[in-house]
Design brief:
There is one protein chain. The chain is an alpha/beta fold and 414 residues long. The chain folds into two domains: 153 residues, Aspartate Aminotransferase, domain 1; 240 residues, Type I PLP-dependent aspartate aminotransferase-like (Major domain) (Aspartate Aminotransferase, domain 2). Helices cover 40% and strands 14% of the residues. It contains 14 helices and 15 strands. Strands 4-10-9-8-7-5-6 form a seven-stranded mixed beta sheet, sandwiched between helices. It has a four-stranded antiparallel beta sheet with strand order 11-12-15-14, covered by helices on one side. Helix 3 packs across helix 10 and helix 10 crosses helix 11. It is globular. The protein starts with a helix and ends with a helix.
């Protein structure tokens, strides 16, 4: 059994109230709440170990040890072969731009760079600018407007012997679709191209295994999986080792350090380590000798199973709201192809009005395009306020889903 009420006790922010009722955080696709252990880890670091890297004294050595352990923790979370394949940075967007600059040496005029219309713009604009600067062709993969799934036939059409980079998302931050990253990677590698995966939206909901995916690079954001505002990049070691890094001259020239430019956000890295440890603690397993990776595998399966009940209840209820239209997979038999991020519009109500109405009732959701500009543009909603987005995670409850549905039914009946 997954005890969601015990889980919620880990999150101080969930106790906030409006007009005597606890607020509901369904804005999770834009950033999750953090458990107290993450706050404690960041505070403890700043109180006890706050020092720069590489010093010959106690606090610097302790700080370096924490950073090394954080690299190991993220390698466990992502299934990487080595902590040297993990790079920390300020956020996913900055890391993607940094890597795209390094990969510019891989692209020549006339080459192709492939992106998808289902992605967050942070996995489009860096590659669009790379293509522009290098005289390469930017090729777009379309998605079905019927269920918002990626057109895999179009993926195959867009990849050719001229393709150098294929950028795709693991899960859509707008409509929740999980993409077949393994098949895309196989297609790209067959053509000799590198694959870059945005796993920001997938990371809180499912287990990532970069070795099984065989992707070349993958990014995620700790603040989307119950940590602080910190970005994480995975890259195959031989690629990171060969790629040029834009850094100051005294900096180390081996991965991952050569891509971790300047003094890092050490307290953010401490919080990221704590977030991984928190997720591992949800495994429900107490067998001695279990590795952190094994605990994470168990924990993410429990999260996935629990969230499946939430999204089923959510979509079933949304489909009964008058004038409401869901964009994305709605068939319960296909819920394994989506995360619980759900987007919708309601006839006669702008997305902002819906979000404001819910917010006034203590239910927090997003509206607009959430930087998934290509999605809202393709669906025809970019100049109409985008969509409303609701995103449960494992600390949300069925009662909170029912409260949302009640509020929407009241709004549409007024």
């Amino acid at each position: 059994m997954f005890d969601v009420h015990a889980v919620r006790n880990n999150f101080p922010s969930l106790k906030q109230t409006m007009e005597g009722r606890q607020v509901v955080f369904f804005d999770n696709p834009g950033g999750t709440q953090v458990p107290g252990s993450v706050v404690d880890a960041m505070t403890r670091y700043l109180f006890q170990d706050n020092a720069n890297h590489g010093g010959a004294f106690k606090t610097s050595r302790q700080s370096d040890a924490m950073i090394e352990e954080a690299h190991r923790a993220m390698a466990d979370m992502l299934g990487a072969a080595s902590p040297d394949e993990v790079v920390f940075g300020p956020n996913m967007t900055s890391l993607t731009f940094t890597l795209s600059r390094a990969l510019a040496h891989w692209v020549e005029p006339g080459d192709d760079v492939v992106v998808t219309r289902l992605d967050h713009d942070a996995n489009i604009s860096p590659w669009m600018l790379l293509a522009r600067d290098r005289g390469a062709n930017l090729r777009w993969v379309d998605f079905s407007t019927e269920d918002c799934t990626l057109d895999m036939d179009d993926v195959e059409r867009q990849i050719s012997g001229r393709t150098k980079i294929v950028a795709c998302g693991y899960a859509s931050n707008a409509v929740g679709t999980i993409n077949d990253v393994k098949t895309i990677t196989d297609m790209a590698h067959h053509a000799g191209a590198l694959v870059f995966v945005d796993a920001v939206q997938y990371a809180p909901h499912g287990l990532i295994d970069v070795k099984a995916l065989d992707c070349d690079f993958l990014v995620c954001s700790a603040y989307k999986f119950f940590g602080p505002h910190e970005g994480v990049l995975y890259g195959k070691f031989d690629l990171l080792d060969r790629l040029p890094a834009y850094k100051v001259r005294p900096a180390k020239d081996r991965p991952p350090h050569k891509f971790e430019t300047g003094t890092q956000n050490h307290e953010g890295i401490a919080g990221t380590l704590a977030a991984v440890e928190y997720l591992a603690s949800l495994s429900g397993m107490t067998h001695p000798g279990m590795s952190r990776r094994e605990h994470l595998m168990s924990a993410m399966k429990r999260i996935e199973d629990y969230e499946r009940t939430l999204v089923s209840r959510l979509i079933t209820g949304l489909r009964q709201v008058k004038g409401l239209h869901i964009y994305g997979i709605q068939d319960p038999a296909r819920f394994d192809l989506r995360v619980p991020t759900v987007a919708f519009r309601i006839d006669g109500f702008s997305p902002r009005r819906v979000a404001e109405s819910l917010g006034d009732r203590g239910i927090f959701v997003w509206d607009g395009n959430y930087y998934a500009l290509a999605v809202t543009d393709r669906l025809g909603f970019e100049d109409k306020g985008g969509m409303v987005r609701v995103g449960p995670v494992h600390y949300n409850t069925e009662e909170e889903v029912d409260r949302l549905l009640e509020a929407l039914n009241r709004l549409t009946s007024s």
